[in-house]
Amino acid sequence: MGRVVLVTGVSRDFGGRFARRIAAEPDVERVIGVDVVPPRADLGGVAFVRADIRNPVIAKVITGQDVDTVVHLSLQSSPGEAGGRASMKEHNVIGAMQLLAGCQKAPGLERLVVKSSAAVYGSSSRDPAMFTEDLSAKKMPRAGYARDVLEVEGYVRGFARRRPDVAVTTLRTAHTIGPEVRSPLTDYFRLPVVPTVLGYDARLQLLHEHDLLEVLRHATLGGIHGTFNVAGDGILMLSQALRRLGRPSVPVPAVAFPSLGSLSRSAGVKALHPDLAELLTFGRGIDTRRMRSVLGFEPSYTTAEAFADFGRSVAPGLLTRPGTGPLADRALAAGGRRG
């Protein structure tokens, strides 16, 4: 008998892609996809159940379907996709609480995989060069997505203490990027003229969408207990990223940078959230040694390669010259890709 996997958040593109990906594994017997609205894309052999993880009925789905593995992918990072900040917090935090309560009541549950975020570390001028998994934020997030992730991880740790028989894998992923990714960060890079913070050049560490799919597959099948930073090798400075895209930048004083949210939304960016504004000011680096030594996962793309692959999906910038920009990075992304 193969594994019976329940995946949350399958109505969104990435959740649906992962559900189809894990359903193709020979060790997986069935995949149940859960969300509040039906997915727009075909889920193939995935069985869809319309359910709200904020409702206690999710416990009946887990036990009734004999689920032994739960993969939680439905954390929302933008108020726009949730219908406002209050709805986003309710979905993220209350939803995680109810999902974990359902997992608590499932005697047959063996594995829980939670896609978390490196946003738990925040971004500040006091940060270490690299955050290891046992470090916490120097400036604790007070609101927004980062705060939600902190609360969710707290509930996950409580669940792990109550159910030591369940292998709980928490993946603190760097910002995901790639040709099919739409997020506040990728929308920021698509701006024709990009605002930056005067006097700062943020360090960026990225994860390719392909590697996010693969690390989730690896964690789901491996059942390795622990919390792991996940990112591609290397750091890319914000100024380097903008040059490679051919994007002109406009330095803005740090005190005014967060207030550019309304301007960025009018230009097509979902929102310039406070946690994104801090990342674009101070940057962030995460140590991924445990990802390799304990989780046993090796990304196929470095940070630079992931950004180059994303860059090929972006229209040429105003400053792109022959021999520069995304097209010039093609060889790096194609030839340098591992695996």
CATH architecture of the largest domain: 3-Layer(aba) Sandwich
- Separation, N- and C-terminal Cα atoms: 30 Å
What is the helix tally? 13
Q: CATH superfamily membership of the largest domain, which one?
A: NAD(P)-binding Rossmann-like Domain
Low-confidence stretches: 265-271, 326-336
The total beta strand count reads: 13
Please state the overall shape, judged from the principal axes of the Cα atoms: globular
Put the structure in a nutshell.
Helices cover 38% and strands 17% of the residues. It has 339 residues and is α/β, with parallel strands linked by helices.
Question: Care to describe what's here?
Answer:
With 339 residues, the chain is α/β, with parallel strands linked by helices. The chain has 2 domains: 3-174 and 207-230, NAD(P)-binding Rossmann-like Domain (Rossmann fold, 3-Layer(aba) Sandwich); 236-336, no CATH class. Helix content is 38%, strand content 17%. It is built from 13 helices and 13 strands. It has helices spanning 13-23, 57-64, 79-82, 85-104, 144-162, 184-189, 209-222, 238-245, 261-266, 274-282, 289-295, 303-311, 330-336; strands spanning 3-8, 28-35, 47-50, 69-72, 111-117, 167-173, 175-177, 194-197, 203-204, 206-208, 226-230, 236-237, 249-252. The strands form 4 sheets. Strands 3-2-1-4-5-6-11 form a 7-stranded parallel sheet, with helices on both faces. Strands 7-10 form a two-stranded parallel ribbon. A two-stranded parallel ribbon has the order 8-13. Helix 5 links the parallel strand 5 (111-117) and strand 6 (167-173). It is globular and about 55 Å long. Residues 265-271 and 326-336 have low confidence and may be disordered.
